[in-house]
Structure formats: C-alpha cells, structure tokens
C-alpha cells in the first residue's frame, strides 16, 4: 500500500514554487484572475457576432482582423520587455485591455450594436495582450530558481487552466443569456488583477545587470529574431505549435457545433472541455521532471492534439465530443509545458522579452489563423471543418518533425544552452552575494 501511495505522490503536481516564491505566487494569481475575466469576453464576442449575423465567416473574420496586431505589437512588445520594467509594461497593457472591454460593454448596451466596433476592439484587445504577454512570460524565470522552472511552468499552466474552465463555463452560460453581463464580469476582473499586479516587485531589465544598447526598436527586434533563427530547437517549438493550432483550432465554430449537436445550452462546456483535460493532465504532472527529451514530447503531444480534435468532429453525440476535446486539452497542456521549459531554461534573460514576443506569435497567430481557417472551411460543413483540420494537423506536424532532426533529439541533460544559462545564473547569484573586498591591512 505504501508503494502505491509513493507512486501517486510522484505523479502529483509540484506546487512548491507557489509556496516558496511570493512574486511568482502573486504573478500567477493576477494573471489567472485576468484570464478568468478575459474568457467571458472571448466567448461573448463570437456569440454576439453569431446573434448579429448568423454567419460562420463573420465569426471567423475575428481571427483575420487580429492577425496583423499580433505580429506587429507582439514583436515590439518583446523588445519593450527587454528595455523597460516588466511589471510596468504589464500594468499599462492591462489598462489598455480594460479600455477595450469597456467599449465592448457600451456597444452591447446600444439598441443596435455595431458589428464593425467589435472587429476594431478585437484588434485593440489583442494588441494589448500582445504587448503584455512577453513581459508577463519573461517574469517567470526571474521569480523562481532555474531548477524549479519545470514545476513552476506546470503550476502556472494549471492556474490558467482553472481560470479557463471557470471562465468558459460561466461565460458560456452568461453570454447565452446576456452579452452585456459577460462583458461586465471581465471589467470587474480587471480591478482585482490590477491590484495584485501592483504588489509585484519591479523587474528592471536583467538580474541587476545593465545591458547596453537594448532599445525598443526594429534593430533590437531583429537581434532577437537572429538569435531564434540560430536555435533549431527553438524554431521547432514555434513551428510545431503554429502548425498544430493553425490547422486544428476549432473554437470559433463552437456556437454552431453546439447547435448541430442539438445542445445549444452546452456552448460553455465545449469551450471548457479542453481545459478540463489540461487540468487533469496538470494534476498528474509529477512525471514531467523526469522527462528530458522535450522536443520529442512536444511532437507526440501535438500529434495527439490533432488526432483528438479530428475525431471530435466525427463524434455523433455531445458526451464523446467532450471526452475527445478533453484529450486534446491534455495534449496541449503537455506540449505547452515542455515548450515553456525549453524557453525558460535556455534563453538568456537579456533576450527573454524579445524571444517571448516571437513565442507569442507562435501561440497566438496559430489559434487566430486556425479560427479563421475553421470559419471558412465550415462553408463545407461544421464537421468537415473540425475533422479536416485535425487530419491536416497530424500530417503537418508529422512533416515538420521529419524535417527537424535536431529538435527531435533535443535532450536537456546534454544541451549546451541549458548548461550555459545555468552557469550564467549561478555566476550572477554568486556575484550578487559576494561582499566587496575592503582594503588590505
């Protein structure tokens, strides 16, 4: 019996970083509260467009209008994260997102809400998120020691998953009844997240060092791009995730898919199912500390994501669809965790913001284009768009994996960038604790 208990404890998620590191705990709480409210708006927008137009193409166009802001602002936001205090950048971006949600709320209260306002504000909201995300992501390695990054990444993902489940289920129910109330909840969540973000310690540039020449310019963005281009392991994380999301992301179709399943009341469940799977995977994530072939793990997880999404599009009833969406969410959690570990353990802090901006493109452009792809493919049928996307994902990820042998063979135990970053952080900690030598006597 004790042997089984030991095995279960080994599987359980490690929440130690949340207990031991105050700033990491505050960052996780603030980001989760902000995400909780954002999911209300994320669901309310397609539901409102469906109510106004009844068109899958109109819903898919939201992803199209978000594309350019993500690219432009995401890259610039990464350079800003390496230039300025990251907490300040997060706070300003949070205020920008609040302003966007307020506009959506006011528009929804009009006798005849304007469709073009929703598109314009969607572009503004994604711009605020693209500005914030590189700074927010770059905070994590500054708040926890190098060895605790895998556990911290999983704890962070788990908190986001809880916010996703609560936000999407409640948001789906509330938005189906009253769009304005859904936007109101998002506005209220900003009050909490802003107060918690204000309690974080400031994060000026890099670990007490000064990096000359870092400016929020196209030149500094180019420096980050050149660094990423020279790292085949990083390119693999970006490419695999972008392919998987771009081909198999179906969430824009969920209001229509629920109607096809004769379960319009279950829109929130469709949005939340993948997060439930992610939550279960995260709760049993003790094993991630023992995995070192992170590239291979990402490839396998992306293949499982695509296969699960494709099969979900073929299932005849709501229950089976929800199970497969949960499996897809578990796979995405695994993929996201190992992508984060590679990024956080190997990227120098002085480049972390700019690389986080490139990372933002991979996990934002993919879903954005994926939703646009789903909306247009749905002209041939909702199930065709979802199942066909899953098949495209499996084929695309398989081809990318075959073309990236270095990514497939990545091993954190022998990787030169892991070793170099660990040594650099150790040297910085040692220099910061060594007292200055006084005059000899």
Notes on the structure:
With 441 residues, the protein is an all-alpha fold. The protein has a single domain, classed as Growth Hormone, Chain: A (Up-down Bundle). The protein is 79% helix and 0% strand. The chain is built from 18 helices and no strands. The chain has helices at residues 2-11, 16-20, 22-53, 56-83, 86-108, 115-143, 149-177, 179-198, 218-229, 232-248, 254-260, 267-283, 294-312, 318-346, 349-377, 382-403, 405-408, 416-433. α3 runs antiparallel to α8 (179-198), α4 packs parallel to α6 (115-143) and α13 runs antiparallel to α16. The longest helix has 32 residues, at 22-53.
Helical run tally:
18
CATH topology: Growth Hormone, Chain: A
Number of separate strands: 0
Q: On the 0-100 scale, what is the average pLDDT?
A: 82
Q: Determine the oligomeric state from the structure.
A: single chain
Shape: globular
Give the termini separation.
65 Å
What is the CATH superfamily classification?
A: MFS general substrate transporter like domains
Order of helices and strands: HHHHHHHHHHHHHHHHHH
Beta-strand content: under 5%
Number of separate structural domains: 1
Biggest sheet record: none
Kindly state the percentage of residues in helix: over 70%
Please tell me the CATH architecture by its name. Answer: Up-down Bundle
Could you list the spans in which at least 5 consecutive residues all have pLDDT below 50? 206-213, 435-441
Q: Determine the structural class based on helices, strands and strand pairing.
A: mainly alpha
**Which radius of gyration do the C-alpha atoms yield?**
22 Å
CATH domain class name: Mainly Alpha
